[in-house]
Amino acid sequence: xxxxxxxxxxxxxxxxxxxxxxxxxxxxxxxxxxxxxxxxxxxxxxxxxxxxxxxxxxxxxxxxxxxxxxxxxxxxxxxxxxxxxxxxxxxxxxxxxxxxxxxxxxxxxxxxxxxxxxxxxxxxxxxxxxxxxxxxxxxxxxxxxxxxxxxxxxxxxxxx
Length: 160
What we know:
- The chain is an all-alpha fold.
- The protein folds into 3 domains: 1-36, no CATH class; 42-126, Helicase, Ruva Protein, domain 3 (Orthogonal Bundle); 127-160.
- It has helices spanning 13-18, 24-30, 47-61, 71-79, 85-99, 128-150.
């Protein structure tokens, strides 16, 4: 049997071996070819190209119109740390395309801008959970108002 294993880790495997968290024989089996891919925050020059690529691909994939991204979007994207790396950037665009609003162009979790770029701090970023809760509250509020209107604002008539 010929088996090949591809493994990825954000931690230093050498340090894990020294700390006793990883068995040395497993490390030597895994450490045949080592490829280091720097995090997105260390290769910011790729953010504009990735942004345009994901935006166009996802609009096509979900049969949505391809709206232009506002000028502040790229500035905000360049300022963020992107701890989720390219996957976080892609998911941000997926959320934008599916929700159809530039307000959805925020990372899945609140991240802070790096100190390096001289960019004005972005507004507080909302998580996907916060966005869905807000949408549910708004929908619930509209539904309650509709039911009250139908019942001529008689709360007791709404329970029937």
